Q: What sequence folds into this?
């Protein structure tokens, strides 16, 4: 990320949102709202004094998945690019109560600017790559697992931050009461491969669950259970990693966790979380008393995927992720020329696959620009001036405002016409025609198609 | 089924045609009575073309486009929806069963839906007499 930030040909607009895209391949116009971060990027050196001295506290950090805290002026995470903080106006004392101003007073560069406003940028670009990523399944949607209701039921992201050496607990796995867990159950497929929520497999959760088990064995003495439907160790070196874990003493149970409860039925279940499941290899129902439950939540399309799809003119597949032009032959292209997709916005995938796809998308976009010209489809509407009555129905029908009435008849603006043929379908005097989709051609095709059916 | 109806489906390039393609890629079986003709947008399918298709001997005509809001050409499919509704009433007036014409929205990810529509429509049309009888009559 740092080398991207330093590259002379790359400009990063962080904390910004695309509001509108118009134009076409080679000449898109993109309207970007650069939100006010209340810190001047040109002056700030990223020293971090402001977030150190900010008097706010106990604001849950989004990056730490809510198990750590941040200040009201903060950098999202330590390696963030650009290294410029942002003010969260909902928690900032200056914005909420009108007094404070500590960060502004202390900033050695005078970079804090409470008056900053959103900027609207108009960019002219040739091609667009959409790489908007995913959302994690919200575990409160599956109440049987007790997330948010029972202590020590955590999501995979919370656990990831907990076990990270740079996280809020410095890599220590701790229960709510500060003890180290004696037993941990990791539940796969929460919110994916489940007809109630998402049918698709999220692909990455098996492997991160295995990683968690491995790290747990490393940093604690806990008994670790993995409850899985199928073990999908599909990538290079992954199956080997799974086999290694089999030897590390992790207990694998083939069966999806059905419920997590804190109601004990026997003395050894007292004070524990009990995971109910069906062990499909033993063919019996089991109750596992554990100290901690990790829910391996699945990947979903982002909440705003519908709006983003509309902004960029993308289609979405049945699972809600963005649709590629062709699943095998054009996996990074989309139905809109010049707009490419890569990463988890196209479907759940792990880091190696994302890097590979992003490389392919970048090269596809560059190749298009390097050519310096694009091949347009030869479909454009044609007017037969003799037949045109100048009624103007086509002008109203055209989705692109590509038709005008000139001298009492329709005239097509060929660069604006996309060749949909809506005007042709609408013309009452049959004066309009669409190149390569003329009535004669369609009728000939239709006759041929009928003959084929006749023979069959 | 007393006879094998002949059905022409006009499918748009960006949603329904890839939808049909997906049905094929996914090896979903559907009625072989349908032959697909690709048009850029369902908006291109004029009432004349539909009538012509019946006159040439098609027992049923399917017009397939993108779902509302998903049309690659912004709103070409809205125009189609209006036209087909009117044409159905005209067909009835002319003594052709309006069930022979059907407009459906199929997205590029709906291979199964495509197959289901084709099967249902084939079934509907096969309950009606062959169009040749109407044309002769």
A:
């Amino acid at each position: 990320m740092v080398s991207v930030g330093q590259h002379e040909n790359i400009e990063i607009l962080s904390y910004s949102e695309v509001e509108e895209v118009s134009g076409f391949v080679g000449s898109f116009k993109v309207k970007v709202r650069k939100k006010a971060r209340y810190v001047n990027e040109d002056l700030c050196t990223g020293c971090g004094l402001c977030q150190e001295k900010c008097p706010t506290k106990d604001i849950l950090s989004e990056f730490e998945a809510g198990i750590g805290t941040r200040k009201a002026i903060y950098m999202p995470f330590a390696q963030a690019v650009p290294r410029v903080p942002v003010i969260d106006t909902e928690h900032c004392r200056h914005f909420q109560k009108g007094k404070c101003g500590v960060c502004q007073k202390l900033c050695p560069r005078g970079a804090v600017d409470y008056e900053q406003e959103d900027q609207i940028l108009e960019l002219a670009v040739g091609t667009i790559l959409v790489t908007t990523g995913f959302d994690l399944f919200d575990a409160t949607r599956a109440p049987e697992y007790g997330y948010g209701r029972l202590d020590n039921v955590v999501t995979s992201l919370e656990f990831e931050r907990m076990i990270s050496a740079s996280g809020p607990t410095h890599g220590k796995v701790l229960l709510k009461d500060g003890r180290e867990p004696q037993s941990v159950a990791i539940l796969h497929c929460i919110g994916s491969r489940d007809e109630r929520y998402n049918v698709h497999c999220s692909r990455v959760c098996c492997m991160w669950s295995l990683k968690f088990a491995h790290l747990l064995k490393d940093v604690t003495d806990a008994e670790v259970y993995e409850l899985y439907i199928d073990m999908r160790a599909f990538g290079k070196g992954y199956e080997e990693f799974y086999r290694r874990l089999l030897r590390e003493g992790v207990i694998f149970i083939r069966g999806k966790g059905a419920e997590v409860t804190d109601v004990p039925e026997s003395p050894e279940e007292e004070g524990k979380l009990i995971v109910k499941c069906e062990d499909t290899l033993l063919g019996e129902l089991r109750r596992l008393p554990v100290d901690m439950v990790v829910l391996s939540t699945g990947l979903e399309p982002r909440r705003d995927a519908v709006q983003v799809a509309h902004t960029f003119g993308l289609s979405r597949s049945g699972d809600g992720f963005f649709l590629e032009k062709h699943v095998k032959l054009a996996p990074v292209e989309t139905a809109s020329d010049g707009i490419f997709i890569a990463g988890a916005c196209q479907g759940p995938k792990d880091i190696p696959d994302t890097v590979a796809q992003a490389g392919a998308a970048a090269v596809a976009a560059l190749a298009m620009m390097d050519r310096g010209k694009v091949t347009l489809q030869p479909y454009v509407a044609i007017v037969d001036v003799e037949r045109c009555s100048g009624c103007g129905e086509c002008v109203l029908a055209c989705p692109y405002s590509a038709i005008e009435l000139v001298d009492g008849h329709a005239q097509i603006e060929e660069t604006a016409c996309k060749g949909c043929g809506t005007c042709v379908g609408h013309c009452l005097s049959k004066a309009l025609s669409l190149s390569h989709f003329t009535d004669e051609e369609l009728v000939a095709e239709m006759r041929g198609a009928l003959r084929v059916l006749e023979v069959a | 089924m007393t006879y094998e109806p002949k059905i022409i489906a006009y499918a748009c390039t960006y949603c329904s045609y890839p939808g049909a393609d997906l049905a094929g890629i996914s090896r979903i079986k559907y009625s072989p009575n349908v032959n697909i003709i690709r048009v850029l947008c369902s908006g291109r399918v004029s009432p004349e073309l539909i009538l012509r298709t019946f006159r040439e001997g098609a027992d049923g005509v399917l017009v397939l486009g993108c779902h509302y809001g998903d049309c690659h050409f912004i709103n070409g499919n809205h125009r189609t929806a209006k036209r087909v509704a009117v044409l159905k009433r005209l067909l009835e007036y002319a003594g052709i069963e309006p069930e022979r014409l059907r407009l459906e929205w199929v997205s590029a990810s709906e291979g199964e839906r495509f197959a289901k529509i084709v099967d249902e429509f084939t079934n509907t049309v096969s309950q009606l007499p062959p169009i040749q009888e109407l044309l002769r009559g």
Remarks:
- Helices of chain B lie at 16-25, 47-55, 76-93, 111-126, 131-136.
- The first helix of chain B runs from residue 16 to 25.
- The beta strands of chain B are 7-12, 34-39, 60-65, 101-105.
